[in-house]
Specification:
The chain is an all-alpha fold. Helix content is about 40%, strand content about 0%. The chain contains 7 helices and 2 strands, in the order αααββαααα. Strands 1-2 form a two-stranded antiparallel ribbon. Strand 1 (about 65) and strand 2 form a beta hairpin. Helix 2 runs antiparallel to helix 7 (about 180-195) and helix 5 runs antiparallel to helix 7. The chain is globular, with a radius of gyration of 19 Å. The protein starts with a helix and ends in an 8-residue tail after the last helix. The structure holds heme C (2 copies). One heme C binds next to helix 2, helix 3, helix 5 and helix 6. One heme C binds near residues 47, 57, 126, 147 and 164.
Length: about 200
């Protein structure tokens, strides 16, 4: 028993040290060259354009998408769902009717995804679905188009937004977003420290 307790205390201490090391390892602004920054961006784009993110980041249409291996053919969300100005379906059928707020993990394939937050579409200005790497990069580095965020705020958002975190643990059947959330945040820091370079169109 005592042994077990010791082991778990050591494990906890080790993980605190690891987390601290990771935070202090974030590169300082100006310390990363452009080529490395662009490599980090390429991974950020892989995440942003993955169905777990882009199905919800659809732009002006307000119509969420069903795409990715679990859906077969790419198509608009079934049942004529439209998010409307509210982005949450208030004008028609609220998203929360099916996408309930819950901290319990997803267990049933093809059930409506749920997260511990209000399920809703991303702002129209962040419509990434089908967009190029250059387009998404330009949108994300422009505070006037991304809700006023510099790269540090973007990295922080990526660690805290509950719907976004769902994309890495979407439950059975759905392919999670690539890399891990920690790697994604590190990539935002690396890209930011290089001055947020964007690839050509
Ligand atoms: C269920 C829908 C949904 C999914 C899935 C989703 N998002 Fe979002 N996203 C939102 C909403 C809603 C907002 C606005 C509210 C906020 O900022 O928290 C948002 C805002 C953002 C922003 C803020 C910047 C901007 O341009 O407005 C970023 C960056 C972002 N999401 C990244 C992601 C990434 C990366 C993924 C996948 C790992 C993802 N999101 C998955 C709904 C979603
Ligand atoms: C009548 C029930 C219902 C309503 C209302 C509804 N959805 Fe869905 N939604 C579903 C179901 C069921 C799925 C999963 C289908 C599957 O996996 O085959 C889904 C899947 C999704 C997905 C794809 C997630 C992924 O990447 O796998 C998004 C995005 C989405 N819904 C957004 C919305 C938004 C935004 C609203 C409100 C404007 C909304 N939904 C309203 C039932 C609903």
């Amino acid at each position: 028993m005592r042994k077990l307790l010791m082991a778990s205390m050591i494990a906890t201490a080790a993980s605190i040290v690891a987390a601290a090391a990771l935070t202090s390892d974030y590169p300082k602004p100006g310390s990363v060259d452009r080529a490395t920054g662009l490599e980090a961006w390429a991974r950020i784009y892989e995440v942003a354009s993955h169905p777990r993110c882009s199905n919800c980041h659809v732009g002006e249409s307000g119509i969420p998408m069903w795409s990715g291996p679990s859906y077969g053919e790419t198509r608009p969300h079934g049942m004529k769902i439209v998010a409307g100005e509210s982005r949450i379906g208030n004008e028609t059928l609220p998203c929360g009717t099916c996408h309930v707020k819950s901290d319990r993990p997803q267990t049933i394939p093809h059930a409506a995804p749920r997260a511990n937050g209000d399920w809703q579409l991303a702002p129209a200005g962040a419509g990434w679905f089908g967009r190029s790497s250059n387009w998404i990069c330009e949108q994300l580095r422009d505070p006037a188009r991304n809700g006023g965020m510099d790269y540090l705020k973007l990295a922080n958002h990526a660690g805290h937004d509950v719907i976004l975190l769902w994309a890495w643990s979407p439950g059975p059947g759905r392919e999670p977003a690539p890399y891990s959330n920690a790697e994604h945040r590190m990539d935002i820091h690396t890209w930011g420290a290089a001055g947020q370079p964007c690839p050509p169109e």
